[in-house]
Amino acid sequence: TAGGAAPMSSNNNTSAAAPQPLPSEGGLIGLISSIGRVMGRVVGIFFNAGRRTIDQVVRNVLPFMAFVTMLIGLILYTGIGDVLAQPMGPLANNIV
Hints:
The chain is mainly alpha-helical. It has a domain at about 35-90. The protein contains 2 helices and no strands.
């Protein structure tokens, strides 16, 4: 054959046998395995929900908290909060 490829045999003697279905387990073992399957499914759901929650917090909440903290620190450091609070002082004492 060209290119050194091995000739391909047209006769395939290694036919894959179809897997035999397992007999359905009943009784106590079947009950335990079905409970285990359901519990595994529930744990998987909670695990994925936790992973998505942590991802949401890291991507959205933490940067916003850092921005607000920086803004509050800047306002307190520069003293602009006191400057803005002086004209608004009389409004805080007014009921109307």
